[in-house]
Amino acid sequence: MISKVLSGAVSAVSGYVVVVEVDLSPGLPAFEIVGLPDSGVKESKERVRAAIANSRCEFPIKRITVNLAPADTKKEGSAFDLPIAAAILACSGALPNGRLNKVFMAGELSLDGAARSVAGILPMVHSAYLSGVTECIVPNANVAEASLVEGIRVYGIENLEEMIDGFKNGSFFTERVMNHSDSKPAASAPGILDFSDVHGQDNVKRALTVAAAGAHNVLMIGPPGSGKTMMAKRLPSILPPLTFEESIEVTKVYSVAGLIDERGALITNRPFRAPHHTTSYAALTGGGRTPKPGEISLAHNGVLFLDELPEFHKNVLEVLRQPLEDRKITVSRAAGSFTYPANFMLVTSMNPCPCGHLGNRDKCFCSAGDIQRYQGKVSGPVLDRIDIQAEAPAVNYNELTHESSAESSAVIRERVLYARDIQLKRYAKEKTKYNSELNTRQIKKYCRLGNDENALIEQAFDSLALSARAYHKILKLARTIADLDGHDDITVMHLAEAISYRSLDRKYWG
């Protein structure tokens, strides 16, 4: 007898449907799984056997063949435990066979039959919905995540025995349903940091405001204790909230990475990732034997903060080149090629020299060679991809102890939201959302300059020896600054401010 149950798997951050086929036939007792299963899937034989036996059901003493279709795609993980067990029980008559082949199932089983959560439920359930499935059964721990998919009815179970009893008494599909409307988003992060805590550094705050308004990349250079890290951590407080579509994109990435429990059901706050400088390039970009999203994908639609930039290994920084341009990363491994989203704001900080006090003769004793080697860890191509360079000088005593309160994040955020609203309306018919995403054709269309502005940018291009990329970034920055001021046209003042944000590489890197 043959039974079929629908399940799913994940490739990168997209799910696809897997049909679990089980055949029970006479012969010597055996339990085989085919369809390119990895060791984790093969081990499900023992989990399923024990789970069925400990759920007051008899495990069939027959030849059992399990096929995971499509058979030419490698299957990984423990999510097939529940559908394999259900298909075996359907073949032996413990569950209704005809009802099961229309229901999606995924979940890990413990030896006592308890249903455990698995990673990647959201993209798997979404793929099932796109294929026409309207009902799914998942562990209780995955119910909130699975319910984010509109149009599909989600049933949560605590253990295998509970599912069997529900099918037997006919109440399972009426009493245990949870719809999309019942799923609640994760609460906003408590105690979010505020720019009102930062005294002084008005020029850096302005630079971060421009960066937030147009989703531009930022580099802050300054001595230790000048507030670079402090301001970077407060950047999310002035960014606009995630749209529902962006929340789903981010939640999918975290679901595949197995971090949903850490962040709640629907992720509504923009991610802020700050990996340590000892992070490897694989951890940053993603990959591994079983490929998972890296830090740049976990920062998708949010902020990736690299503190102490020169302390990162040079090869780690160089792998950022392509993602910063393409806003995605393709990882090729033996298991295949996987493309992860990586549309993030890069925010970085560094000291000007190894000791951090360059220019202070009383504190800095770094040799010219030490300084050159330290700054040389950040290559020209990486610097060229950073839109804004802001210098954060040491804060003096009067600024630190001044009684007047600094501008709050709420006030700054209003300006950012105003500029972003202008961009969303301007690019309503384009795939672009923000100024930083403009391509060459769009720059010519939306960043037109007058005669005075053209003369200024030409002078800057020659005197600063700008690259074509830097030239285009200056134009996009000027467009953002004009949006913050509510101007349709880019003026000399806007262009001059944009050019000033591209001067530190000449100061420190010659």
What multimeric state do the chains show?
single chain
- What's the total helix number? 25
Percent in helix:
25-40%
Q: What ranges have pLDDT less than 50 throughout 5 or more consecutive residues?
A: 180-184, 186-190
CATH class type of the largest domain: Alpha Beta
CATH superfamily of the largest domain: P-loop containing nucleotide triphosphate hydrolases
Please tell me how large the radius of gyration is.
Answer: 28 Å
| Major β-sheet annotation | 5 strands, parallel
Total strand segments: 19
Largest sheet: spatial strand order: 12-15-18-11-19
Percentage of residues in strands: 15-25%
Q: What do the pLDDT scores average to?
A: 90
Report how far apart the termini are.
Answer: 76 Å
Overview of this protein structure:
With 510 residues, the chain is of the alpha/beta class. Helix content is 40%, strand content 17%. The chain contains 25 helices and 19 strands. Strands 12-15-18-11-19 form a five-stranded parallel β-sheet. Helix 2 packs across helix 3 and helix 23 crosses helix 24.
Please outline the helices and strands:
Layout: E1 2-11, E2 14-25, E3 30-34, H1 39-42, H2 44-53, E4 63-69, H3 81-91, H4 97-100, E5 104-105, E6 108-109, E7 115-116, H5 121-130, E8 135-139, H6 143-146, E9 153-157, H7 160-169, H8 172-175, E10 177-178, H9 202-214, E11 218-221, H10 228-233, H11 244-256, H12 260-263, E12 272-273, H13 281-285, E13 286-287, E14 292-293, H14 295-298, E15 303-306, H15 314-318, H16 321-326, E16 328-333, E17 336-341, E18 345-350, H17 368-376, H18 380-384, E19 388-391, H19 397-401, H20 409-426, H21 440-446, H22 451-463, H23 468-485, H24 492-500, H25 504-509
Parallel strand pairs: 3-4, 5-8, 8-9, 11-18, 11-19, 12-15, 15-18
Antiparallel strand pairs: 1-2, 2-4, 6-7, 9-10, 13-14, 16-17
Helix pairs in contact: 2-3, 9-20, 9-23, 20-23, 22-24, 23-24
